[in-house]
Structure formats: structure tokens, C-alpha cells
Amino acid sequence: MSVIKLTGGRVIDPANGINDQVRDIYVKDGRIVAALADGDKVSAEYNVSGRVVMSGAIDMHTHIGGGKVNIAREMLPEDHRGDPVARTEITRSSCGYCAPGTLAAGYRYAEMGYTSCFEPAIIPMNARQAHMEMGDTPIIDTGGYAMLGSDDFLLRMLVANEDQKSINDYVAWILHSTQTLGIKVVNPGGISAFKFNQRKLDLDEQNAYYGVTPRRIIQTLTRAVHELGVPHPLHVHASNLGVAGNVDTTLATMEAAEGRPIHMTHIQFHSYGTEGDRKFSSGAARIAEAINRHKNVSADVGQVLFGQTVTASGDNMSQYRNAAFASPKKSAVMDIEMEAGCGVVPFKYKDQNFVNALQWAIGLEIFLMVDDPWRIFLTTDHPNGAPFTTYPHLIKLLTDRSFRNAMLDTINPDAKAMSNLAALEREYSLYEIAIMTRAAPARILGLTDRGHLAPGAAADIVVYTENADRERMFEKPDLVFKDGELVVRDGKVVKVVRGNTHVVKPEFDRGIEKKIEPYFRRFHSVRMNNFKISDDELCECGGGSKLIPHACGKRS
Amino acid sequence: MTNEASSTVVTEVACPFCGLACDDLSVDTAGEALAVVGGGCAKAQAGFARLGVSHDGASARVGGQPASLEVACAEVARRVKASAQPVFAGMALDVSGMREVMELADAAGGVVDHLYSEIGWRSTRVVQDVGYVTTTLAEVKNRADLIVLVGTDVVSKASRFFERYVWNDEAMFEPAPAARRIVYLGGGLNTAAGQSPDGRAPEVFDFDRARMPEALSTLNALLAKQPVSEAAPLGIELARWQALADALRAAKYSVLVWIAGDFEPSQVDLNINAIMSAVRTLNVSTRSNGLGLGGADGELNASMVHAWQTGYPMRTSFASGIPLYDPVHNGTARLVEQGETDTVVWISALNDKTPPPPEAKVVIAPPTLKLEHEPEVFIPVSTPGVHHVGHFFRGDKGAALPLRALRATRLPSAAKVAAAITAQLKEVSA
């Protein structure tokens, strides 16, 4: 039995309403406990008085595993050369800046105080690869969202006007079969449309073959996810990614959810207007106003930060278009298995480029104008807006107005003139940062034992020395505990553990397999039984990861 | 997963013996050797029969003498520890085997090199130079209206390609599979499988395949509406080339198929680049995709795991403590030739046909592997998909298939052996 005591820390635990209160924390066998029982002997005590204590951070949208990420790694040896991770007695060698190896990614996340990360774009057919990569990402917990909406099975169900219950059964079957935590839709129906040579698909435009609109896909899938009781709302990468004027599409997509929960992902890339001489402007005010008004809507930002990165997306329709802007000049675009696609395009965001600079400002405007930190999440859509290692810098931009304005003064002046960023006075507090990086992601994903420090929670705990320079503070925590094990000290990995895999298993009627099995036999490249990932197989894919299923409260 | 409780036939078995990884096999487990009784092909039948035995009596050897697994692993650990840069070659493994070898190679400061890397690194160079536009097998099965086989018949390496993905009974979209148009670029290919079920012969551009760069240049020029001065490039009248270009432009979902290993090694990246150029030109107005097929002998298991763990493709040296990628420098043959390695460890659990290079002092392979020389250490291992479960990446990168355990054996898996060597190595170090 292991008993740990963290003594005298300033605890910031928004899930439990605790804001900077001095408390002792006890950990017994990997879990937080209220107090020690008779006979418990503290095996390690850490005096953390004066230091800030939070739960482990959670990245709810980061491309850390799966086919497209691995294409990016293979494509970009030039990215890796400058960023090696050396082998030590306890860690292995790896490398990469914007497209790091899984080993580098796991160590770096842990060294920044992140203990759980979620891959948002798992192609069902390729879920095994995503789980294998996440299984080889050390220390952190993982999980993912399965991509639907351009899969021919669902589109055929919609054409056949199958009832919502059957669709719910299919969605639940996908969650079980792919061992995922949520459902994502990417450019709804658009990836399928691209295979029929359509190059854009607006919310109310029909897929050339199926006649189905993105709106109908959003309506159907938000309803399915809601009725199945999956904690995480439908995770939506909206239509028209990156296109000037897409703010209208994004607002209409929110409305298409008809009041049901909907999560709009990397919303910065979907918040563009067409004002000004260059017909490219910020739609942040309209987006923030809509999020503030619609309590059913949440969003992660997908902040752009300047420098070299690589964009990796399931949205091959958009990525084929964006390949024209690739830097360096190369790109990979794939149609995949009657389910989805992917596109990998290296990209360099330049602070003197008008569009890039305005993208940077738009992301920050959204952060600062959305009132409720429980519904706006800190992401760069790693690596699409910037690598995750830039999070401490992003936190500084959000918490320090003078720093932010100093940065604003250095960007493309026309972009600066088009932004209201300078006028935004808000500075995020540590409490709000803890909400958006811990408590809120745990809540929106249904991770009841993560993202907080109450008794019963998993002991994923981070200790920081407070520093007015928030970038310095958040890039190098003093201590990081994963399930009660000290894994990082002074910003360096001191122990490597294996994280868990988070999934949901909603109830459904297995009779749906009577429809799915013949479909696989007729049209797919594998048999249905070889598509499904069992619990035992998942643990093998994950290299021995423990499976943590989260409850679903069925609503229909 | 048997038909009925009493049956000894296991159905829906995935096959690890070529890059297609067909998963519709029925395998009878009743006899001494495994027998493919449904699905499959000659290669699958031979593979399951040859490897699908219990290998009773096979034992590790050190210096030609029987040794325990522990002693053999300790001897390998001692050798890789003493080496400045051991090379782990062969690598016909499943995912878990490759995962464990990666840990070993990093700890040992070595290099990992698959038996097809000499071709593979040239393929990967295309991704690093220009990228690609590609598709996967289920898309081909349902959408392809024009399939151009570039310098390959596919079936010599992956015999069921047409059966499973081209001449299907039905497809989800137009055209009906039987109406698909098949074109072979290059002579000397087995074009029989390209004949449609109703007897329509495929089109064949019959020329010396070593001249593929010229053929693809001609096609690219015509696709780009540039003039071609020759009346009959490669001895084939220009009108036929023009008709092919027109057909590609008119197709709704053309697919250009290649197998890198079927190209002249020195032309691999040149040819794939040229295919990508054609595909990119076509995608301006219609849809067209490349389909690179490979993946035999776990080629993609090795390349995928290597890339995701370290960031780099294979032929990366871990000797300095950080990964250093140089696919030209770090090839096994070159390292041996230049004296830059003194220890070649051959590890192969899926392939018992390819002989290890004579320099391989350590061989970790199925006991059915015929050795020309007795290595200093031999460790027999079981085979994924035959003796133990595992995962196998299909050659189109579209899926990873689960492999089954069909036959009991006392032999360890390659993963277990690699992990045991790593553990010994760390003990030696500690």
C-alpha cells in the first residue's frame, strides 16, 4: 500500500469550488482520500506549502495518434532533427517538434502537467492504429472520438429514412467496436462528397450522390449522441474550414443542433468574415455572442501560434484545397475505406502575414469574449494551429494583457487594425485556467474521476511554483503525479508509467449487427468481426493499458 | 469463432502471408499442420501448412549446441552490448514483435532495417519530397472505374487483388464491377487476372518496364496537354497514349496502382513521383488516386511502429543516444560492407524463406527457416497469426487486421524474445 501526503499546498480545484485554499491532500493506492485511516502510514510526504496544486491537465482535442499523424511524422524528417529526445536510464529516445513520436509526445505532455489526452479523429476502420499509437504514448491517459458522418453506412441509413433508434444503435455499435469515448463529425458529409468530386459542401447543400445535407447529419448525430447518453456532445468540425465568410456556416451549424448539446471544435478556423479590403475579417464577436447565448454549445479554440507546424485533418476536401498553401511544398491526401479520409499539409504561420496574424488574433478574441470558461477549451488543435508544447505561451497570452498587447504590436499591422484584441481587458485567472484545462474537459467528457481533487478522484496531481510569468510557471511543474505515482520532478520525467484508456459503452440493441454484417461482407474490405475491437484486444493494442469505461445515462 | 461447437474449422481468419491480409480464410486446425479450407491462395495454404505446426522439439542453439532460451537471450544481450552499433535486420514481424525490437534497438544503440527497406526508403522519399494522393482497398472495391496497373500485375505478389477488390459481384456505386476498365502499363506481366468476368481482355501497353520513366513522362505530358513529338513512344502509337490520357480525364474515380518492389530499385521514387504528378493533374477536374500496395512480411508493421515511436522512418541509428535518420547510410548491406557494424541480428517471425545475410551471427526465426550456415546464436520463435495473436498492417495503409492464435506451441514469440534480450541487456548495464 502506498500513502502519499501533499502538505500545505494552495489548492485550486474548480470542480469542487475550491479556489486557492491551503489544504493537505492524501493519496492512497492511486486515489485521493479525505483522510488517513487508522494504521495508514505515510510512505512519502511532500511539503508543497506556498505552491499551487491542481489536478492533472486534460487536453480534449489533440492529434496524437492514428494514420494521419504517422503520415506527418514520415513526411517531415526536417521537423524532427532539431528536436531530439535523448535516451536516459528510464526514458527512450524519440524526436519531433510539430509531429513528435509517441514517446516524445507522452514525456512532453507529462512534463507540462498533462495527464490525459484525447485523439479527436479516429477513423473507425483504423481505430486499432490509433489505440496502438496512444498505447505507445507513455504516462498519459488516452481515448478518442470515432469519426462518422461521411461513412457510407450512415449516409445509406439516412437515404433509407431509417428511424432514429436504428441510427442510435449504429452509433453505439461504432463506439463499442472502436473503443472510443465520443463521436466526431468532420466536414459533415463533405469527405464523402469529395469522393464524388464535390469541392465544397455548405450546410444545406446536398451530397451529389446521396442528396443528404450536412445539416441533416448534424441533426441526426447530435440527437443520437444525446439520446444514447454519451457524456461528450457531438464533436463537430464544421463545414467550410478555413474559408473566408465561414462564420455564417458555423453559426448555422450551432442552430442545426436544435438546442441539443454540441461541441464546436477548433472554432477559430471557423470564425472568419469577409469584411475589409482583403475580404477576410474576424467573426469572433459573433461567435462568442452565440456561444454566450446558447448554453448547449461548447467549443475549443484551435489557437494559431506563429511558426512551423503541420496540419493533419480528416477533412480531405479542405486539405486538398489547402495543399496550395503548403510550406514546405508537399501534402498527403487520402480517401479511406468508405468511411473517411485524411489530409496532411505542413504549414508555417507567419506573424507578418495578414491572414495568419488575424487568425492568431481571432483565436484570442474568442477566448476572451466567451464568458463561461466551462464551455471554452484551451487547444491549439495540436498540431494544426501549433504544437501542444506552446500551451504555456498561450496561457501567458490569456492571463497577461500587457504581454498580449506587446505581442499584438509586433504582428502584421493591417491584421492588428482589423482586430479588437487591444480593447479586450480580460485576463484569465489561475482558477479559470484550471477550469478550462482540468475541470471543464473532465466534465464535458464524463470523466468523473479526473479533473478534480476530491476524495475518490484518481491522483493525477500537479504542483507548480507560482510565477508571475505564467509561461514559465506552466511549462515546468515541480511535481506531477499520475495515478498516485510521482512521474515528473522539476519538469523532467522521473518514472514512466502506462496510462489508461477511457471509453464509453452505451446500451444498444445488438440486433443492428444483422444489418451491419452483410454490409461488411458486400462492400467492405474486412469482415465485421475483424473490424470490432474487443476489450482484450484493446488492452493488447494499448500495450497493457487499463480500460476505464464511463457511464452513459440513456435518454430515450 | 467456429462454425459450430464441434467444428475444428476457424472462420474469418486474417492471413499474414502477403500485404493484402485477406481476412476471409477458413482454417482447419484438426491436422498436424493448419489447412486453409476456404478463402486464401497458394501462398496462404503453403504458409499456414509450413508454419502451422507445433514445432515440437525446436530449441535454441548457441555455437550450434542446444541451449535454454535464457542462456541464448543472455548471449545475444552480451553481443549487442559489446557492439558499437548492432543492426536488427529482417523484421518480418507483427506489431508487438516490432514494438519490442524497437525498445531493444534503442537500448542497444542500434539500427532497425526491414528486409524491404532498400525499396521502402525510396518510397518514403516521395512522401518527404512531394507527398501523395492515395486511396484504400474498400474505396477501390466500390468506386474505381478505371484501374491502371503501373509496372505491376499485383497478383504475382498479392494473388487475390482482382478477386477481392475488382471483379466483385456488386459495388456500391457505378459502374458495375464487370464494366471496370483495366490497363496494364508495361510488358512481361501476368495479365490473366485483368480479364473481366464476361471475358473482356484488359488493355496492355507492352514495353520494357525498365523504361517506365519514359512511359510516365509521355502520359504526364499528354495529361498536361503538352505536345509529344514521337509518333510511337516506346513503340506504341501515340493515339493509344492519348486515348489513355483521355480515359483518365473522363473517368470519375481512376486508380493508379503500383508495387514499389516491382520497379527497378533506382527508379522507385522517380516512378512514384511521376504517378503522383499524373494523379495531381487529374484531380484538378476529376477524382483520381494512387494505390501503393506493399506490406508483405510485415513491412508496414515495421515502418509504422518505427515512425510512431521515434518520429522517423527505419534506417535510423540510435547509437548516439538520439535518433539519427539517414536511410542511405544506415542500410544493413552498406553498414556491413563498410565495417560500421560487427553484429547483425536477424529477426523474422513471419518469413521462413528469405535467408539471412551470411554476416548474421544471431538468427531469431521460425525453426523451418533453412540456414546456409549455423549462426552463433539461433533462437526459434513462433509465428503471429499462426501460434499467437497479433496485428498486421495491410499494404494500402487502410487497416490493421487482428491475427489469431490457431496452433499451440511451446516456442516464444519474437516479442517475448526481444523483451527478454532487452531485460538481460539492462541487467548487463546495471
Radius of gyration of chain A: 22 Å
**What is the CATH architecture descriptor of the largest domain in chain B?**
3-Layer(aba) Sandwich
Calculate the mean pLDDT score of chain B and round it.
96
- By DSSP (H or I, 4+ residues per run), the number of helices of chain B equals 12
Coarse shape of chain A: globular
Strand tally of chain B is 20
Assign the CATH topology of the largest domain in chain A: TIM Barrel
- Which range does the strand content of chain B fall in? 15-25%
CATH class of the largest domain in chain A: Alpha Beta
Instruction: Classify the secondary structure makeup of chain B into a structural class.
Output: alpha/beta
Oligomer: heterodimer
Count of helical stretches of chain A:
20
Helix content of chain B: 25-40%
CATH architecture of the largest domain in chain A: Alpha-Beta Barrel
Query: What is the CATH homologous superfamily assignment of the largest domain in chain B?
Result: Dimethylsulfoxide Reductase, domain 2
The biggest beta sheet of chain A, please?
Answer: 10 strands, parallel
Overall domain count of chain B: 2
Tags for this model:
heterodimer; A: 556 residues; alpha/beta; Urease, subunit C, domain 1; TIM Barrel; 2 domains; 33% helix; globular; B: 430 residues; Rossmann fold; Dimethylsulfoxide Reductase, domain 2; 7-stranded mixed beta sheet; 5-stranded parallel beta sheet; 12 helices; 20 strands
Task: Describe the protein's architecture and organization.
The complex is a heterodimer of chains A (556) and B (430). Chain A is of the alpha/beta class and 556 residues long. Chain A is 33% helix and 22% strand. Chain A is built from 20 helices and 26 strands. In chain A, helix 6 crosses helix 8 (214-228) and helix 10 runs parallel beside helix 12 (354-369). Chain A is globular and about 65 Å long. The mean pLDDT of chain A is 97. Chain B has 2 domains: 60-116 and 297-386 and 409-429, 3-Layer(aba) Sandwich (Rossmann fold), CATH 3.40.50; 122-294, Dimethylsulfoxide Reductase, domain 2. In chain B, the strands form 5 sheets. In chain B, strands 5-4-18-17-16-6-7 form a 7-stranded mixed beta sheet. In chain B, strands 11-10-9-12-13 form a 5-stranded parallel beta sheet, with helices on both faces. The longest helix of chain B is centred in the last third of the chain and has 16 residues, at 414-429. The chains are: A alpha/beta (556), B alpha/beta (430). Chains A and B meet through helix 1, strand 7, strand 8, helix 3 and helix 4 of A and helix 3, helix 4, strand 8, helix 5 and helix 10 of B. Strand 18 (331-336) of chain A pairs parallel with strand 8 of chain B, so a sheet runs across the interface.
